[in-house]
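Obj.: predict assembly geometry.
Materials: sequence records (below).
Method: joint structure prediction, all chains together.
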Amino acid sequence: MSNVTRNRLTGADSTTGELVSQVVLGTSVLAFVAAWLLLLQWVDETATLAGVPALQLLGGAVVLIGAGLTFVGVGSRLGYLDATPSSTAGVPVGFVFGLLWAILGGIAATLVLGDALSLWLPVATVFGVGGFLGSVLPREDVGSTVPLGTILALFGASVAFGGIDANWTWSPSWSAAVFPGSELVPVAVVFATLLGAWGGAKAKLGFGAEGRQAGAYYLVGSVVFAMLGVLALLVAFIVTNGLETVLTGTSLTGGHLTLPFVGLQVPWAEFPFLLNQTGGLFVEIPGVLPAVIGTLWLVFGAVLFAVPLGVGAAVFLTEYAERGRFTQVVEVATNGLWSTPSIVFGLFGLAFLVPRISGGNSIFVGQLVLGFMLLPLVLITCREAILAVPDKHRDASAALGVTKWQTIRSVVLPAAMPGTITGIILGVGRIAGETAPLLLVFGGSPYPSSSPNVIGSFEFGIEPPFVTNEALLSPASALPYQLYSTITAGVFPKEVFTNTEFGWGTALVLLLVVVGLYAIGVGSRLYFRRKLHHE
Amino acid sequence: MSETEATHEPDQRVTTIGETSERVREEWTDYHFSGDAKLSIEDLDVYYGDEQALQGVSLDIPDESVTALIGPSGCGKSTFLRCLNRMNDRIKAARVDGSVTLEGTDVYGDGVNLVELRKRIGMVFQEPNPFPKSIRDNISYGPRKHGDLDTGLLARLLGRDDTGAERELVERALRRAALYDEVENRLDDNALGLSGGQQQRLCIARCLAVDPEVILMDEPASALDPIATAKIEDLIEELAEDYAVVVVTHNMQQAARISDQTAVFLTGGELVEYGDTDQIFENPQSQRVEDYVTGKFG
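Observations (raw structure tokens):
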């Protein structure tokens, strides 16, 4: 086979290329992080390092990356550096680089010739095609470095030496928006460094299959870490903003606990924000206890309503109903229900359930509406989990003369339990933070002076309906509902906190409640998994 | 499994190598043994949709012995086996004509209780299929579900539970399946932690725990290594002292080693020859069977 290329089996002797690639890669990662810090305003764009402004430093880093890439690419092509490149960088790379060059050409033409479409479009097209051909036609080591390196070096130089600084603005005539350099440059640097890291990683392993693998690894890795970073930032933001509110007035020994039976008061931890009522005359530090209790009752009721129905329906659809048109329709319908906007569920509850059940907003209707929302997800995940139980278990059970229902109860459902619980966890996470339907069917005063006393309100009678529960049929407050009220129109009744402070505190508690519910779910899933497998 | 096997197109090559003209003769499948038949099958036809998987199979299976069913893939031997305890009822497309009689009762007759039938005719599958439960729960699963063992919370609270009886039953079944010594100390561990051979013996023990009269085995050793296979074979021979064991296998040496009588199915779902194992392997009457057992095809 004459067209098979053979490269040396051992790695390169010379380490120059590897060293330069390493520098490119390292600079890219550092500049990537720095650009994010600037974007998120953790570092001000007026900051300087050794007298050089931050943006100019970033520009210099990008120049270094571009120059390094070009050096490795050209060095490899001329045979000074050991590498095992393929014959071309590939069409996808060509498209990306072509696009970059088209953008460069377009901007340059707008600046020099003016921004009429007929002027910049031809230039951008020519640049784009040039970038594409320049990437695709040469060997991989040149194609995937030189077009990129050049453009990075040009961009970096214009930032570092060309006067694009924090006060520079770009105000295109087709838009009323004004883009300041303090925002544009970090955004551009984020993308530039992603590409730089990709190129550097590729060059480090000498291009070819190994190089592509390394490039993809760094590209995917940095994107994933950036996303995780944003998520961590979100949580950190809520914690830092809410923590002070949540901890107001806490002390380990300031409270009192009255011992049962003895009547003795002993010092006890005090946690006013979590354990106090919100309104009321004698509450010094308002707390979120009524809303926490309200949220827990909502979730409890919804789960109690949705899980038996969902699991039952899943069992019927998988084990009893014949696979066919009917099950397909149900499948599509449940998937559709799961993506139905929650406000629609709320509207249904308001128009249909409220007049028939409580005549006004109530916990019970809130539980039902959230239960309706949870139902499709429980059904979908439980159905998938049951379908994943291997048929050999059903055969084994049938061969022992065990009936279908007993088999479902003792073999199929236990095996499907971990999957079903995963679905319930996901659903509970969604409904615990649901606000829209609660506005319509559930919420009363957002700052109640007492928690709903559901357990103590059951009354039994000898006439229908035999059981009544005043608390279940009354409105209450829940964490997301209270948060919404506080940050929109709320006039907070106490002077201890401002609206914003109280809102952040509520948000943090809501986050903790949802995480707590998750923890319960994950724990029970692990328990059932361990029972099913020998771990 | 048997579904795909049965709907498999008959191998055309087999029917063209010079044994096509041979018709099955009744005396070839006439096998006389002392004592009454445990199971007797009369004119059994099985269809999967339009495809006929078994054609007029008739044979009598004696008690307390091993009956081997051999034949090439797709010849209907697994289908035949699954007819005996009506496991084919679970396949919607399958239709069965003819009769299967267990000690005088037609299992396809009206009002047959499937629970009782499958308690009396147990089955072991090709792939070991213990439940993802503890070894103890695997064994006591059948009796518990049939209400023969009550170890529920209520019974325990009332002091009427059968925990002692369960322990005895689990030990007896595991000993009978030659597994007790290996798992004695880990009866509460998950059965999926056992090796393949141990799992298969556990499945046999699970089957024995409901006290069957007939044990059907569908290639019970084909997924196992040689040592585990040898243990299963020894076990089958032992079980034949008390039970009627029917084993499907496509390993002819295995059939020769363990069985007392052998039924040979050939492509098309026909029973071609049935008789004493020694006679089938040393002096078959049918030319096709001779070709098959001497390895000329199949």
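Conclusions so far: Residues 1-19 of chain B have pLDDT under 50 and may be disordered.
To do: check interface contacts against the pulldown list.
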